[in-house]
Amino acid sequence: MQRAVQWAVGEGLTVNTSIGTTVWDLLTVASARAGARIRVFLLVSEGESLDEARERAICEYGLDPALCEFVPVTCPAGDKRALMQARDQALVAASRTLVAVSLRPRGSMESLVASAGPGVRVVRDFAITHSGRDEQLKYALSADNLSAEAAAIGCQYLVHWTRTSNGPWPGEPVASFCRAVLDSDAYPRGAFAGVRNMLTTGRIAASPRHMPGNTPCVSFTGKSPLEFAPLMRWRARYREMSFEPYGIGIERSVALAAGLRAVSYGSAREVTPDAAPQWLRQSEGKLTAWRDEDEYRCLGDFALRSVPRESLVLFCRTRAEAGSIARDFGVRAVAVCRE
């Protein structure tokens, strides 16, 4: 992609691009970094003006307004899928040169390129064969998979377990995520990279995802690794693991003194005058028994820098990863999986 962008800059072309999906985000950030002139086809959400969408894009993607033109894309039906299709069609229709990088066979973009008019130049010098994922995306843990050291740890820690991020880390600008992907040979936002980032920055960033009222919180569990391992499973609905064997444990007394509070479980209708604040309430669940997580939450970011090193334990999937954490950060690190 970056070679294709450099070629377009050399040809003096304006790059037609968009934002909101990973591929378009990567193209936009790569083009901005190369100093290209950019025409951004913006999906303007309901209740948002073009100026608001424009300013959000400039800030989040690190764009130079002097090199950017913004084209609004709307869809009367308000259907997100239809809106994205309208965006792709408008973008291709406005292009006189189409540069193929990787087209999924029988995909919508391949169809749009194939239907381009006779006056449109299609450049395939940078095309690579589209391939599916090679790496294993899902796995399951059980008591039998745990290392002896991990299985011996009880409930003396409250543990924040993490997982591979499908996009930017909480609070991370999209531009930062895209630059990391463009500059890396391997995916840079895996779960192991996540715990290293938490230690480097000295904080666990809060996220509103799946939280009541979209309130940014950090989640922990009071379960031991042995009890929690069966909850690490593939969630097909979200195309991600619920948790992976990477986490940060904090001695229970230290964590509670730092502001962590236990979640209150019950029916969504059980709201009494003395009920816990909304961010601490959790439905018992119908398909999933959320009580099993024994969850604790921190409102907003959790400051790791305030926790003494001797009160921390780091969990990693392999012994090699645990060893690198111990060497680089001077904290106890435990391999979760048996090797």
The arrangement of helices and strands along the chain is: HEHEHEHEHEHEHHEEHEEEHEEEEEEHE
Terminal-residue CA separation: 38 Å
Low-confidence stretches: none
> What's the helical proportion of residues?
25-40%
Radius of gyration computed on alpha carbons: 23 Å
Number of domains: 2
- Side by side, the strands of the main sheet go 6-11-17-18
Q: What structural category characterises the helix and strand content?
A: alpha/beta
3D shape:
elongated
Could you tell me the number of beta strands? 18
What would you say this structure looks like, in words?
This protein has 339 residues and is an alpha/beta fold. The chain has two domains: 2-123, Rossmann fold, CATH 3.40.50; 143-335, no CATH class. It has helices at residues 2-10, 22-33, 50-61, 80-93, 108-114, 148-152, 174-182, 191-201, 225-228, 252-257, 319-329; strands at 14-18, 37-43, 68-73, 97-99, 121-123, 157-161, 203-204, 217-221, 234-235, 240-241, 247-251, 261-262, 264-266, 281-283, 295-299, 302-303, 312-316, 332-335. The protein has a four-stranded mixed β-sheet with strand order 6-11-17-18. Strands 1-2-3 form a three-stranded parallel β-sheet. The chain has a three-stranded antiparallel β-sheet with strand order 8-15-12, with no helix packed on it. The longest helix has 14 residues, at 80-93.
